[in-house]
Amino acid sequence: MNIRQKNIYGICARSHVPLHVGEGVKKYAMEKIERELEIDQKIDVLYDVPGNGPGALIFLGAVSEKAVAGFSSLGGREKRAEEVAREEIELSRNKKG
Predict the structure, then answer these.
(1) How much is the mean pLDDT over the chain?
(2) What is the pLDDT of residues 31-54, one digit of tens each?
(3) For residue 70, how many C-alpha atoms fall within 13 Å in the half-sphere facing its CB?
(4) Measured distance CA(60)–CA(26) in Å, rounded
(5) Contact 61, 9 (CB under 8 A)
(6) How far apart are CA 88 and CA 62, in angstroms?
(7) CA distances, 27 to each of 24, 38, 53, 86, 93 (Å)
(8) Fewer beta carbons below 10 Å: N end or C end of the chain?
(9) Is 0.90 surpassed by the pTM of this model?
(10) What is the separation of C-alpha 65 from the centre of its chain, rounded to a whole number of angstroms?
(11) Which residue from 62, 63, 82, 80 is spatially nearest to 71, judged by alpha carbons?
(12) By the 8 A CB rule, do 28 and 3 touch?
């Protein structure tokens, strides 16, 4: 079965970290999707999300002609924002059918 991805929608959220962390996750993810997957994307950032500790997360939803899939990655104190986004893109690329 050939499933062509149409769009990727995402949410980045940050809690107890500087504002640039959420924007960094978004920027890195959007650039990597554009460059490597060549798929249209829209990613929003949620600021000041309540949390038990510092960190960021990203959730991406991939929508194709015949399927919908979701992927997420969570960052923390020792994990750079770019690493959070990179993990997410790798997951979605590996599941691409």
Answers:
(1) 82
(2) 988 888 888 889 999 998 998 888
(3) 5
(4) 11
(5) yes
(6) 11
(7) 5, 15, 23, 11, 18
(8) N
(9) no
(10) 21
(11) 62
(12) no
Domain containing residue 53: 5-94
Measured CA to CA, the distance from residue 27 to residue 48 in angstroms comes to 18
- pLDDT digit string, tens, across residues 20-30: 888 988 998 89
Q: Which runs of E-coded beta strand occur in 16-54?
A: 40-46
- Pick from 41, 47, 72, 68: nearest CA to 58: 72
Total count of domains within the chain: 1
Edge-to-edge order in the sheet of strand 5-15: 40-46, 5-15, 55-64, 68-74
